[in-house]
């Protein structure tokens, strides 16, 4: 009961703090919603441009004032496995809309980069900024003001947060997010990790590594580990922006197609012209944001969402802080064991009971707000179900979530959690603020006190590892990796090397103003250090040999140096000119100048 009361207190605190920004936001979307789409008031030349490429039936419908028009924002591309299935979705959506007497148009496409391809590469320096580019790209498409509702086709890391920011910026429009689902299970995650570490040690070659990676990432759909992409899907469902039970159904199946058609029908049924008007800006309120944070903790979700959720909430006028996220972590039991905080993948999570079971258990114990508005038209209790294919092979039917988990080693109950608190924690101290994903780190490794080894580039650390220079216990400080320095790339490729050293018996940890993503793994990592080095943060004063204490239990991040001496030290300088050009980085200089700190969403808005 204490947890329930505390969650209510935190929600009320967020609501009170947000009132100066939330209330004007609600007034704006109410006024826009009352006015309706401008399609009916466009000059004839404008409207003719809007449907010039449509077929005769759609043209006829769009000339009237009562026909619904559904906007499609798509992040389709062939290269990104999770988004390749979206190639066929627009026609499926258009045809379903026509069957309802409505129309649907692709309002715009947005970029969608694969962090798996750019991991450890130069292109990763554009990744975080792509979120805000995606939001702006979607806004360009929706700015034609031709639509009564929108569906958003996106799955992966920065894409869904960017689309969510756009959906809330156009919060007067009903919005439904349409997932494509995870790829089927490939090489077990433990085996993939083993091969990566063997390669890092030089014990297997590139051929063996590529074979293992290809068996892991082998077909259409989301990567099956529980990183940012699958955390996105969990969030959209637990925040009421998916149709129930749709997050983790594999692509290319009849049920997946049936869910897409159903999402289309639902989006068209909740417009301002009907009786169930459900604008996105009312679905995402303070309670929905808190539900999202709790879902993130209960599943051991991605550290990236300590930034993305802050930015998404801000788009709806809601002020979420790292302190809120950390306090909610202390109140939320860990109910899922999915790689990297377990050996199972997201398909095993789905088979064990999936989102329906997870939401059911959290609601049963009062850990979620049920009294929310959802795109489905119910409270969150309407999501305690499993979606199945109807007997006709085309419709969706729903049955209650299982009473018991089908695999308690993957999905459990609040009475018998895998850990008493959630997967993410805020760190604080004389180095600034940071976050750590503790759910993937063994309890005995969550506290490290060791001397610093300072690097200004992740490749420098890799070279030191290969040269055998990283001996004894140490905390690697990798700085000038924040948003203003170089776009805050993920440093995930450091995990195998540091994992090798940890397995050899060394106490190791990472402190960085960069990111590690949802796959941060078994190494204690204080990430998103704020203020970053490029903004004069204390991380810029650390020297080789300084003793650092990283305490993932108490939430302390301290450099154990006399305060007077530490404060008097000059800040380190780094030559960042190499980050300014190549692979499009020159086009993002304005982003590096304008971006805000990580604890405020690392946003340019």
Automatic annotation (TrEMBL):
Entry's EC annotation: 4.2.1.12
Q: Which UniProt keywords apply?
A: 4Fe-4S, Carbohydrate metabolism, Gluconate utilization, Iron, Iron-sulfur, Lyase, Metal-binding
Give every Dihydroxy-acid/6-phosphogluconate dehydratase C-terminal domain span: 409-602
Essential cofactor(s): [4Fe-4S] cluster
Top-level class of the enzyme under EC nomenclature: lyase
Q: What does the entry list as the binding residues for [4Fe-4S] cluster? A: 156, 223
The reactions it catalyses are:
6-phospho-D-gluconate = 2-dehydro-3-deoxy-6-phospho-D-gluconate + H2O
State one molecular function term (GO): metal ion binding
Q: Which GO terms describe its cellular component?
A: cytosol
Q: Which PROSITE patterns match?
A: ILVD_EDD_1 (PS00886), ILVD_EDD_2 (PS00887)
Report the co-factor binding details: Binds 1 [4Fe-4S] cluster.
Record pathway:
Carbohydrate metabolism; Entner-Doudoroff pathway
The Gene Ontology biological process terms listed for this entry are: D-gluconate metabolic process; Entner-Doudoroff pathway through 6-phosphogluconate
Describe the location of the Dihydroxy-acid/6-phosphogluconate dehydratase N-terminal domain by residue ranges: 70-380
Identify the Pfam families for this entry.
ILV_EDD_C (PF24877), ILVD_EDD_N (PF00920)
Function, please?
Answer: Catalyzes the dehydration of 6-phospho-D-gluconate to 2-dehydro-3-deoxy-6-phospho-D-gluconate.
Q: Which PANTHER family match?
A: D-XYLONATE DEHYDRATASE, PHOSPHOGLUCONATE DEHYDRATASE
What HAMAP family does UniProt report for this protein, alphabetically? Edd
**Which protein family is named in the record?**
Belongs to the IlvD/Edd family.
State what protein this is by name.
Phosphogluconate dehydratase
Q: Which species is this UniProt entry from?
A: Aureimonas ureilytica
């Amino acid at each position: 009961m204490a947890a329930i009361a505390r969650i209510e207190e935190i929600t009320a605190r967020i609501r009170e703090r947000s009132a100066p920004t939330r209330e004007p936001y609600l007034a704006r979307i109410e006024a826009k919603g009352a006015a309706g789409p401008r399609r009916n008031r466009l000059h004839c030349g404008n409207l003719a441009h809007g449907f010039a490429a449509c077929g005769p039936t759609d043209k006829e419908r769009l000339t009237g004032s009562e026909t619904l028009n559904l906007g499609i924002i798509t992040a389709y591309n062939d290269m990104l496995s999770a988004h390749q299935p979206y190639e066929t979705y627009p026609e499926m959506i258009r045809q379903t809309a026509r069957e309802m007497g409505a129309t649907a148009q692709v309002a715009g496409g947005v970029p969608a980069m694969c962090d798996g391809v750019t991991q450890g590469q130069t292109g990763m320096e554009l990744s975080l900024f792509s979120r805000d580019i995606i939001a702006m790209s979607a806004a360009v498409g929706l700015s034609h003001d031709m639509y009564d509702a929108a569906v958003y086709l996106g799955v992966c890391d920065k894409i869904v947060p960017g689309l969510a920011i756009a959906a809330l910026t156009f919060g007067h429009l009903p919005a439904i997010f349409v997932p494509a689902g995870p790829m089927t299970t490939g090489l077990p995650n433990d085996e993939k990790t083993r091969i990566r570490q063997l390669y890092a040690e030089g014990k297997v070659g590139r051929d063996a590594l590529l074979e293992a990676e290809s068996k892991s990432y082998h077909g259409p759909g989301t990567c099956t580990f529980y990183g940012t992409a699958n955390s996105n899907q969990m969030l959209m469902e637990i925040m009421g922006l998916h149709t129930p039970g749709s997050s983790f159904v594999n692509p290319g199946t009849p049920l997946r197609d049936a869910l897409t058609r159903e999402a289309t029908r639902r989006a068209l049924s909740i417009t301002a012209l009907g009786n169930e008007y459900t604008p996105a800006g009312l679905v995402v309120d303070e309670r929905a944001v808190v539900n999202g944070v709790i879902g993130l903790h209960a599943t051991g979700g991605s550290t990236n969402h300590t930034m993305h959720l802050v930015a998404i909430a801000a788009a709806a006028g809601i002020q979420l802080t790292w302190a809120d996220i950390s306090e909610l972590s202390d109140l939320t039991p860990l109910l899922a064991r999915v790689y990297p905080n377990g050996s199972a993948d997201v398909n095993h999570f789905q088979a064990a009971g999936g989102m329906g079971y997870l939401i059911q258990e959290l609601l049963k114990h009062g850990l979620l707000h049920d009294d929310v508005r959802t795109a489905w038209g119910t409270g969150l209790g309407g999501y305690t179900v499993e979606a199945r294919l109807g007997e006709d092979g085309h419709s969706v039917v729903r049955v209650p979530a299982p009473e018991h988990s089908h695999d308690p080693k993957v999905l459990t109950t609040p009475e018998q959690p895998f850990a008493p608190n959630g997967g993410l924690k805020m760190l604080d101290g004389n180095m600034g603020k940071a976050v750590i994903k503790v759910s993937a780190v063994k309890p005995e490794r969550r506290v490290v006190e060791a001397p610093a080894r300072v690097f200004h580039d992740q490749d420098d650390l890799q070279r030191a590892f290969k040269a055998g220079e990283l001996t004894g216990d140490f905390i690697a400080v990798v700085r000038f990796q924040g948003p203003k320095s170089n776009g805050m790339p993920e440093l995930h490729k450091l995990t195998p090397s540091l994992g090798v050293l940890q397995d050899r018996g060394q106490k190791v940890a990472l402190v960085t103003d960069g990111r590690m993503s949802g796959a941060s793994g078994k190494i204690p990592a204080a990430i998103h250090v704020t203020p970053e080095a490029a903004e004069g943060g204390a991380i810029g004063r650390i020297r080789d040999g300084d003793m650092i204490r990283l305490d993932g239990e108490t939430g302390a991040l301290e450099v154990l140096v006399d305060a007077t001496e530490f404060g008097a030290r000059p800040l380190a300088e780094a030559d960042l000119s190499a980050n300014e050009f190549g692979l499009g980085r020159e086009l993002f200089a304005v982003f590096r100048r304008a971006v805000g700190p990580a604890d405020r969403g690392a946003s340019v808005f």
